[in-house]
């Protein structure tokens, strides 16, 4: 009698572990290749290919999920209520982030004791050109320009350019139109649902390439500025990271507590996404999976589909926190004392400029150039922190991800639609997985 021989089960390394290994290898390889700039052109394309694959499917996911969710809601008053509650919460929490950054900047004074002439300088010319272009206001006010630009003149052009605000506007309007035509809109909803399922299948396959992208990004980062650039600016790095940890644990922790959940529950279920966002310095890499997980965590699909894409423009808590600390850093480095009134003006200016330039590439540096110029401070000081901006960007991206994820719970709770039991069940299954 022939007995079947049982083949031993293969043990696979989990994706988060693969990403962590890639992260460590990237640091090690980048350290040993520091100064070998000619090799960057061979490594950088690997990271860019991965990032392009992610960006390729972000817009279809945002458009299809939002249009489908709004069509199921079908009520303009409900959608409007989602809108003002979302924007109000974003404005409050962003203001708190800017204020916290100013407090940390004053307490720890990261710019004191540094000689600008002895620090390595980066190139901010491309950011200055972007800032000059962004300052050319059609209506004399950046906020008004932003409001007008929300309505696209050509939706296909907006889709091609990846402009989220016009896409969100059209998707909401289109979703309401589908709901308004009743049964005639069902075939359209079926198509949107099918496209969404197909795109989510694609994202799960693309994420398997994450370790290669992470290795390339980290390796190039270390090769470019080297670990030696960290030493003179280590205090700034520690202050920014410390402020961001405080913001997540205390500020977002209190908000989560008010909503009846623990902020560490969100961090736990998003640990893979946070690691990926940190490594790539891009929130877009995790947008689809964050939307998927927050829906499983108990937030309704229509709220998740609306809040998270909107948050990518209006709720960049980590960026706001960093910008306020960096502005004070430059002032302190040049020995400029800012009075309480001037710091309040700085806070208000950052609130306006960050919203008015939400879609500008390299937003954080561009916003700072504009803000420092309006405050009479030397924008050239930003050239001194370009070297570690990538590391700071990695940190603020994580804060942005956690902040946007929590906002779905806040709006859901505000609407009395948050499913606490579903969230806890998902959390338990996630712990066992």
Automatic annotation (TrEMBL):
Membrane topology of this protein: Multi-pass membrane protein
Record's protein name: Proton/glutamate symport protein @ Sodium/glutamate symport protein
Location(s), subcellular: Cell membrane
Regions that span the bilayer: 12-33, 53-74, 86-108, 164-182, 209-231, 237-264, 325-352, 364-386
One MF term in the entry's GO annotations: symporter activity
One GO CC term, this protein: plasma membrane
Single GO BP term: dicarboxylic acid transport
Name of the gene encoding the protein in the UniProt record: gltT
Keyword Cell inner membrane attributed: no
Superkingdom of origin: Bacteria
PROSITE patterns for this protein: NA_DICARBOXYL_SYMP_1, NA_DICARBOXYL_SYMP_2
Organism the protein comes from: Mammaliicoccus stepanovicii
Sorted UniProt keywords: Cell membrane, Membrane, Symport, Transmembrane, Transmembrane helix, Transport
């Amino acid at each position: 009698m022939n007995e079947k021989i049982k083949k031993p089960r293969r043990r696979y390394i989990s994706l988060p572990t693969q990403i962590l290994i890639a992260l460590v290898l990237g640091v090690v390889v980048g350290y040993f290749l520091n100064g070998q700039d000619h090799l960057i052109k061979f490594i950088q394309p690997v990271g860019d290919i991965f990032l392009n694959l992610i960006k390729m499917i972000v817009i279809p996911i945002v458009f299809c999920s939002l249009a489908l969710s709004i069509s199921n809601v079908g009520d303009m008053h409900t959608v409007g209520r989602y809108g003002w509650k979302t924007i109000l919460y974003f404005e409050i929490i962003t203001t708190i982030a800017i204020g916290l950054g100013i407090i940390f900047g004053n307490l720890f004074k990261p710019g004191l004791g540094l000689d600008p002439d002895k620090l390595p300088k980066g190139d901010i010319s491309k950011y200055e050109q972007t800032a000059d272009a962004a300052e050319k206001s059609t209506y004399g006010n950046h906020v008004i320009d932003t409001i007008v630009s929300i309505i696209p003149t050509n939706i296909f052009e907006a889709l091609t350019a990846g402009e989220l605000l016009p896409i969100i506007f059209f998707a909401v309007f289109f979703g309401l139109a589908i709901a308004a035509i009743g049964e005639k809109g069902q075939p359209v909803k079926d198509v949107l649902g099918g496209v969404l399922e197909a795109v989510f299948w694609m994202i799960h396959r693309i994420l398997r390439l994450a370790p290669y992208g992470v290795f390339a990004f980290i390796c190039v980062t270390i090769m470019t500025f080297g670990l030696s650039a960290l030493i003179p600016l280590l205090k700034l790095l520690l202050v920014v990271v410390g402020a961001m940890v405080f913001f997540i644990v205390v500020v977002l922790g209190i908000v989560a507590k008010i909503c009846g959940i623990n902020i560490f529950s969100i961090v736990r279920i998003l640990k893979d996404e946070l690691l990926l966002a940190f490594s790539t310095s891009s929130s877009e890499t995790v947008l689809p999976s964050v939307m998927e997980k927050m829906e499983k965590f108990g937030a309704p699909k229509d709220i998740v589909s609306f809040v998270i894409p909107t948050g990518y423009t209006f709720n960049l808590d980590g960026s706001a926190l960093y910008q306020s600390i960096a502005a004070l850093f430059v002032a302190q480095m040049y020995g400029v004392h800012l009075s309480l009134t001037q710091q309040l003006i700085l806070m208000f200016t950052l609130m306006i400029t960050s919203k008015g330039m939400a879609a500008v590439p390299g937003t954080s540096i561009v916003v700072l150039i504009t803000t420092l110029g309006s405050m009479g401070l030397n924008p050239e000081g930003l050239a001194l922190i370009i070297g570690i901006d990538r590391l700071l960007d990695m940190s603020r991206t994580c804060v942005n991800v956690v902040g946007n994820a929590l906002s779905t719970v806040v709006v859901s709770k505000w609407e009395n639609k948050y499913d606490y039991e579903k969230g806890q069940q998902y959390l338990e299954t996630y712990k066992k997985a």
